[in-house]
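Usage

Read records sequentially. Each one opens with the input sequence:
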Amino acid sequence: MRRISLIMILFFVCGMCTTASDSTSKNAEVYQSREAILYGINTSADQLEVKVLSFGCTKTSHFELDYNHIKLGIANISVIRLKQDQCRSNPFVKTIQFQIDPAIRERVSQLVITNTFRTDTFNKGAYETQYSGI
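and closes with the structure output:
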C-alpha cells in the first residue's frame, strides 16, 4: 500500500513538472509584436535613435520600423518590438539605432513617432505623447 502511494505521488509530481514547462514554452512562442514604449529619441537626416527598456538581452534585431501612414510629406512611424527580452538583469535604458529608409526620407519632410513615451524607467510619473520632428 505504501509503495503504491509513493508511486502515485511520483507520477503526480512528474506530471506537474511537464505541465509547467509546456506552458512556459508556449508563452514564449506566443509573444505578439507590439509598439515599444520609448524613453527618448534622437533623429538625423538618415538615422533614428530610440531608447527602450532592456533587461540585458535587447538587440536591434528585436525591433523594426513600421511606416504605417505616409501622406502630404508626413510619415507616421512606429517602433515595433518583435521579440521579448527574456533576460532578468536589472532594467536599464538602451539606445537602439535604425536607418531611415531612403525612399521614405525623400518623400517626407516630417516624421511622427506614434509610440508611447515614458519619462522614467520605472513608470513613476509616466506620461504618454507623440513626438514630431525631422
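Summary fields computed downstream for this record:
- Residues 75 and 111 are 5 Å apart (CA to CA).
- The chain has two domains: 1-30, 34-133.
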